[in-house]
Amino acid sequence: MKFGVPPVHITLDGPAGVGKSSLARLLAEKLGLPFLDTGAMFRCIALRLGEKGLGLGGDALAGELHKLDFALSGEGGTFVLLCNGKDPGPAIRSEAVGVLASRFAALPEVREFTRGKQRAIGEGFSLVAEGRDLGTAVFPRARVKFFLEARTEVRGARRQKQLAAQGSRERLEDLVEQIRRRDELDRGRSLAPLKPAEDAVIIDTSDLSLEEVLEELLQRARPACGL
Ligand code: DC
Questions:
Q1: Ligand 1 mean position to 133 CA, how many Å?
Q2: For residues 10-20, average pLDDT
Q3: Which of 41, 50, 129, 135 is the most exposed place for a label (fewest CB within 10 A)?
Q4: pTM of whole model > 0.90?
Q5: Residue closest by Cα to atom 16 of ligand 1
Q6: What CA–CA distance (Å, rounded) separates 38 from 174?
Q7: Whose CA is nearest to atom 20 of ligand 1?
Q8: How far is C-alpha 167 from the geometric centre of its chain's CA atoms?
C-alpha cells in the first residue's frame, strides 16, 4: 500500500468448512496482501477461557478478554494471528474448539471486543480477511466482498479430508452434524449473524475445485488492487 492511498480490504465470509481459510490465504498470496483469519481469534478466546468462560458474563468476561492481545505476523503466504505474542498452533483447530468458539461468538462482549481488534489490525493496511461478519459488520466499506456457500455434506467431506491431512480421523456423519450445529448458531444469533452483505458476490463452491473458485475470486479482486 502506498502512503496516502486508502487501504484495500477484501472480505470472504461464509459458513464452516466452505474453504474460506485456504482460499483467503491463496488469494492474499496472489495479491501480495496480508491475510487475517478472524475465526482464529474466536478459537483462541474459546481455548483460553474454556466452557466456564461462557458463564462469566458482563464485566468479568470483558476483563478476561482484555488480557488477550492479537497481532498479525508474517509475510508472503505465511501470515499467522498471534495471541499474546504466540502462534496458537494446531490446538485451536479441533471441531470441538470450533463449536465452543461459535458459542462465545454470540456474546455481545466478545463481538465488541473482536470487532475492535479486527478493525485495529486492518486500520491503515490493505488485507484479505475471512470470517462470518467481515463484509457486514467489521469492514462494511470493504472494496470487494465475497460470500462463499456449499452444501453441508460437501463441507463435511472437505473438513474430513483436511483433518485427515493433519493426522486425525473423524466420521463424516459426526462432522456433518457438527457443521450443521455451527451453521445454526452462526446464522441464528442476533448479533452479526452469518449472512451475505447486500453488495457481496455470492459463490456456491459445491461443484467447483479450489482452483476454479480462486480464479473467480482473482478475476474480481485484481482490478480492485490495481492489478
Ligand atoms: O472460521 P472458523 O471455523 O475458524 O470460526 C470459528 C467460529 O468463530 C465460528 O463458528 C463462528 C465464530 N466466528 C464469528 O462469529 N465471526 C467471525 N468473523 C469468525 C468466526
A1: 9
A2: 95
A3: 50
A4: yes
A5: 132
A6: 24
A7: 39
A8: 23
